[in-house]
Write a structure and sequence with these properties.
CATH topology: Jelly Rolls
Structural class: mainly beta
CATH superfamily: Exo-inulinase, domain 1
Largest sheet: 9 strands, antiparallel
Shape: globular
Number of helices: 2
CATH architecture: Sandwich
CATH class: Mainly Beta
Order of helices and strands: EEEEEEEEEHEEEEEHEE
Radius of gyration: 16 Å
Distance between the termini: 25 Å
């Protein structure tokens, strides 16, 4: 995996800032971003959690949650896989598939199509308090997902054929969480002869 710089990240909602020489930070209630590479099966975030944001934004469902996590096979705003570390109101790792066949923009699918996947085997995520640092890594091969916290396997299971058929980049999402982090992903160093896809931003691209 290769380290993702701010210039390699397409932010579709909120703001991600460069932090130090190679790090990133987020301090907004809602942030969505993806790596400007065509595909990725693996991503990792090494982070320090700084606590909740000063103001909070509700989810599309109306729920209030402090969370962040990785995106894999992010084809578009309507079809992707999430590995989310929920911090408040309870600490747990949740794997979800968002699937809306034939729909590709936020105005089409909104917050529909989510399915939380039950793990074949899992361990509890540790509770997070401000100042703590951890590493979250996720790998998706075909429909088999593994998630690790600090190199400890905490989630393993099958996501099904729909997730296996999705193709897209890695990314990151946060809701009401302040973080300093380094993000790594497969396929982060482009072939010099290849052309990167355009950076799609704006409300239609935010999932």
């Amino acid at each position: 995996m290769s380290l993702i710089s701010r210039s390699g990240l397409c932010v579709t909602e909120g703001e991600v800032l460069a932090h130090g020489t190679s790090g990133l930070s987020v301090d907004v209630p809602k942030m969505r971003a993806y790596v400007n590479q065509p595909a990725a099966d693996r991503a990792q975030i090494h982070f320090t959690y700084l606590g909740p944001t000063a103001t909070r934004s509700a989810l599309g469902s109306g729920a209030s949650r402090v969370q962040f996590g990785l995106k894999l096979h992010s084809a578009d705003a309507c079809n992707l896989v999430y590995v989310m570390w929920r911090i408040e109101p309870e600490s747990k790792l949740v794997v979800s598939v968002k699937s809306n066949p034939g729909q590709h923009s936020s105005s089409q699918c909104s917050n529909h199509g989510y399915q939380n996947i039950k793990a074949r085997s899992s361990l509890p995520a540790p509770p997070l308090t401000a100042g703590q640092s951890h590493t979250l890594r996720a790998t998706l091969r075909a429909d088999e997902l593994q998630a690790f916290i600090d190199d400890r396997l905490v989630w393993q299971g099958s996501l099904g054929p729909i997730a296996a058929s999705m193709q897209g980049s890695a990314g990151i999402r946060s809701d009401n969480a302040r973080l300093q982090f380094n993000l790594e992903s497969d396929h982060a160093s482009p072939n010099p002869t290849s052309r990167l896809p355009g950076c799609r931003t704006g409300p239609e691209e935010s999932e």
